[in-house]
Known about the structure:
about 15% strand, 5-stranded parallel beta sheet, disordered N terminus
Amino acid sequence: MSQADILKKNAQPGAGDDIRIANRDGARELVLVVDDEPFATLLMERILVAEGYRVVVTHDGFEALRIYRKLGGQIDLTILDYAMPLFDGFAVFNELRMINPQAAVVLTSGLERPARMNWMLENGLLGFIPKPHTQKKLVSQVRTLLDAAVGSGAK
């Protein structure tokens, strides 16, 4: 079974029944938020849901990969924190790209210029959203990045 077949199979209805999707019936894209800071994820989830996006939140990279394997064909954008314990954003990004080379991923961090960011940009990272986020800036950047992902064929 090819990687594309696995992604398609895992995207079937029922494949992610154990995964909480905020605003499941929302009209906009599905965004996966990966950040080890509970307050940061709560804030991003609330902002994105208020704008009509469907949102899945996780607090660690291992769980992000499990979710992506189940819902990858449905996830339109992954917002990935760079600085996480055990399995950082760089490692998660690499694994996501191995699962799906077209995965639409954006990095977020409080660091001004995270290490390895240039390499990540050269290898498919769509962009960078600096922390702290304002509601207006987060919504604007997410929309811009989703539009860019569609234009580039990433998902």
